[in-house]
Write a structure and sequence with these properties.
Layout (H helix, E strand, L loop, with lengths): L5 E3 L2 E4 L2 E3 L7 H4 L7 H5 L16 E2 L1 E5 L4 E8 L5 E8 L5 E6 H6 L1 E2 L4 E2 L2 E2 L3 E2 L1 E2 L6 E2 H4 L6
Antiparallel strand pairs: 1-2, 2-3, 4-14, 5-6, 5-13, 6-7, 7-8, 9-12, 10-11
């Protein structure tokens, strides 16, 4: 059964609260939506609700990355009113950690290149949503020594 999702006065009302931070300002460069469909957002647990679940068993619902580097963000919990997420993140190395991040900040991130690659201007780097990712336990998604 799909969760009830309603749009009222320009806000998206999910069962866990109202979503108010869907700018998606770089969609034209990214080529796909940064945020998943609203019914998928509605299925993500509220912040703090998986605190008693062992990390390997926590369900990860969304995966974001910078495809050319080792930067990853996996969403396990979400506050739809603020876009604050809790999940697993890796910042440029083989290891990661559990922590908080703001989806609106990830969506707005853009790094423009100042150099050239093989004679061509480098494309700006954006944080991408892995559109093929499906919700799964952390033990099936993350490098074993980092869970």
């Amino acid at each position: 059964m799909n969760p009830i999702v309603r749009i009222v006065e320009g806000r998206v009302l999910l069962p866990t609260g109202a979503w108010e931070v869907l700018p998606d300002v770089h969609r034209d460069i990214r080529g796909h939506d940064f945020y998943p469909p609203f019914p998928d957002l509605a299925g993500i647990p509220a912040l703090g609700s998986t605190a008693n679940v062992p990390p390997p068993a926590r369900t990860l619902h969304i995966h974001y990355s910078i495809p050319t580097e080792q930067f990853d963000w996996y969403v396990a919990e979400l506050d739809p009113a603020t876009g604050q997420a809790f999940g697993w993140l890796r910042a440029g190395g083989p290891y990661g950690e559990w922590g908080d991040f703001i989806l609106g900040e990830l969506e707005a991130f853009i790094r423009t290149a100042d150099g050239r690659h093989r004679g061509q201007p480098e494309a700006p780097q954006l944080i991408q949503r892995d559109t093929s990712f499906r919700a799964a336990p952390a033990a099936l998604c993350l490098p074993a020594p980092t869970i």
